[in-house]
Amino acid sequence: MSPAEFSVATKVISGLGSLARLAAEVGQSGASRLAVVADQGVADAGLLAGVLQGVDGGAIAVTLLVDPDPDVAAAERAAAAARAARCDLVLAVGGGSAMAVGKATAIRLTNDGRIDTYQGVNQVPAPPAPTIAIPTTAGSGSEVSKVLVLHEPGRKDELVVRADGCEPRVAILDGTVLRGLPRDPLLYAGLDALSHAMEALWARRGSWFTAALGEAAAREIVDVLPAAAEGASSGANGSGDNDESLQRLIDASCAANMACGNSGLTLVHALSTAPSVHLPHGLKNGILLPHVARFNEEVSGPAAASLIAQIEPLYRTLSFRPEFPPGLASTDAAEAMVAASSGHPFRANNIRESSDADLFSLLQEAGLPQN
């Protein structure tokens, strides 16, 4: 067995009320000009103003709002504005989209090439500007990841930049930021996090460390996601009465990325990288997860097998059907997803080898017959 590596370079500040630490962290960074990169939906919901409440407004040089699934042009526009404002710190607030553009902006503050020239592994010449990340969903875990993902039109898969040093310097996990998240986005994010945790258990590059963290994160998500989703429906989240569940969920999401960020991802994400399949990322992964789990079950260890057995009861509790919408069945979605996985390192990292026929069969189980 090859030597395994495990590292988490991000300082994580976690707990209800931890947002109060933001101003101190900005001060300790020594930065004087902040670029705030946030999801447009976070700003529209009024959450951004609350996050920034303790930050000196005079230090915010530019605020950049990001739409879902940003491409290279969106990242370059944000980077150009931050460079023009001579920013020396990026504050990324939101889900995976804001985190991706925030990391791209930090890279471009210290590197002159367009962001897509750095795609691949460790292709970024100079260390990025420091980033502080505040996730507002409990899904991607990008706040502790050295990876950024952009959705460039015309590609068969996502554009990925992965480099040591590109992870945020600090991540602040405060469950109260999840209070206003509607049920479906909260649910899809939670299923994305569950897929991260589970994939760490059947990754060829996995280790004792990633398995231990992945198992703990998966069990926590299985246990708490129903309460968090119910709280979104009942209003308990919004009133603050369900903060403990929300904190547990955001912590587990972060831990799941620590696991998969070191083990690498596998078949779920290899298939879901097809940009032409226009569904929320977490929804795609939530649909794929039980089907990939069954595919890997016979080669999984006891811990993974135990968790695989819990997926179906969890989905019943959540009233979530792991099937693609009927409208996709008449398209080339299955072909696009298998094509995206072809030659992808996530597919090669899956503990069980897969043929294209295997994957088409798996997607058929998920409601996508081959044309």
Walk me through the topology.
Layout: E1 11-14, H1 22-29, E2 34-39, H2 40-44, H3 47-51, E3 60-66, H4 72-84, E4 89-94, H5 96-108, E5 120-121, E6 131-135, E7 147-150, E8 159-162, E9 170-173, H6 183-199, H7 208-234, H8 236-239, H9 243-263, H10 267-272, H11 281-297, H12 302-318, H13 333-341, H14 345-349, H15 356-365
Parallel strand pairs: 1-9, 2-3, 2-4, 4-6, 5-8, 6-9
Antiparallel strand pairs: 7-8
Radius of gyration: 20 Å
Structural class: alpha/beta
Largest sheet report: 6 strands, parallel
- Overall shape: it is globular
In what order do the strands lie side by side in the largest sheet? 1-9-6-4-2-3
What percentage of amino acids are in beta strands? Answer: 5-15%
The average pLDDT value, as a whole number, equals: 95
Helix content: 40-55%
Could you please describe the fold and organization of this structure?
It is globular, with a radius of gyration of 20 Å. By secondary structure, the protein is of the alpha/beta class. α6 runs parallel beside α11 and α7 runs antiparallel to α9. The longest helix is centred in the middle third of the chain and has 27 residues. The strands form 2 sheets. Strands 1-9-6-4-2-3 form a 6-stranded parallel beta sheet, with helices on both faces.
